[in-house]
Every structure is written in structure tokens, then in C-alpha cells.
Amino acid sequence: MFAKEHIKYEPVDLPDRMDLSDEQMLEAVKAFYDKMKRRHTVRDFSDRPVAREVIEECIRTAGTAPSGANHQPWHFVAISQPDFKKRIRDAAEEEERRFYDGGAGDEWIKALEPIGTNDHKPHLEEAPWLIVVFAQRWGEFEDGTRYKNYYVPESTGIACGFLLTALHHAGLVSLTHTPNPMKFLNGMLDRPDSEKPIMIIAVGHPAKDAKVPSVAKLKKPLSEILTVAD
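Given the sequence above, the corresponding C-alpha cells read:
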């Protein structure tokens, strides 16, 4: 990315300039909205395999996300090996049992009722791929000295958005899963202390009888999520 002894600003011409008319812009963004509103969080996966190359290209897309100081403070671990997925499921369900047995509090559990979730997470085994996302709190130069990463949660969150969009664009479905705590993933996946696991994304094709909670189709209208000052 950069070397300790050679960090300086070197401007280059914008390499990929888009030039759409106002009409083309509106048409393009409406088409993109129409595609993205068909994205759903799915917990029921089929056993249809997904090629490794597809997962790699989706993660490559995530790697193009903007980040603080362009430090790109993320790492993705993609897992398809069944025994590995089972280990992750077992560990995640152990944390989830604590969550649902009182660790979360009554208000949080009540908020989750319309989603229909519980401590049973079969999708962590059934999905052909799990992608574990790590946020890198600091990096290291080649000589081992540390450098600080900036806006790590924001940067990694944007990259996750890129990844979920790429997966949907590839015709796949996904589920973001966040057992708390997730520190067990560092040891299991041999990731350094500088990295914090923030998400497990189950990825694959939906089962033929896949269901989604009806509440998931209820999205706030534009008037509730937008304020315009013009």
C-alpha cells in the first residue's frame, strides 16, 4: 500500500470519468434502486455450490471502497470447508445462547421478535460460504513498526456495504450475523490482535422454500430518511 520511507502526495488524472446526461443519471439510479430493493436477508440456503472465483470477485469489489487515509483497514476470510463452518456455528451458538438467556436484555429481545431469530443458527453450516469480516485497528510497516488506521468502523462498514451489493449483483443471497462477543474468531482463523471481527456473512443461493419475515419488507419512506437543504 505504502512504504514508511516514501509517503507523499502524487496527483494523477481521474482515470475513470463518467459523463452521463441528467436523464441518463436518473434512469441509471432508478434502475439500481429497482435492483437493490430486491435484495433480502435470507436465512434459508440451498446446497447449490458457489464458485470460489465468484466470492473472490465480490471481495475484490469490497476492496475498492473508500477508507480513512486510504489505509483500507479490513481483511476478509472466506470459508467453505464444512468442518470449519461447523466449528464457527458451535462457537457462535454458544455466544447466542448467552445473548438470548438474558445477556441482551428484554427490550432488545422484544425488538427481535418480528424478525423471528433465536439462538439456533443452522445457516452457518448450510450456506456454502461464510465470509468473516475483520476491521484492522492498526497496521504494520515492513520493519514491524505500527501505524494508526483512521475511521476504521466507518471504512469497514462501507466495504461491507460494497460486499453485500456485489453479492446481490452476482445473484446470491446473504445474511449478516454478529454474535457478541466474536473474539473467538481471531484464534479460530489465526488473525492478529490488531484485527477485530465485526461480522460473519453467510452467502449462497436461497432454498426453494426460503422465507423472510414480513416486517423486512417494511422500509421507511424517503420522507423519513431524507432532509434536503437546497
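The chain has a mean pLDDT of 93. Try to locate this feature in the C-alpha cell string yourself.
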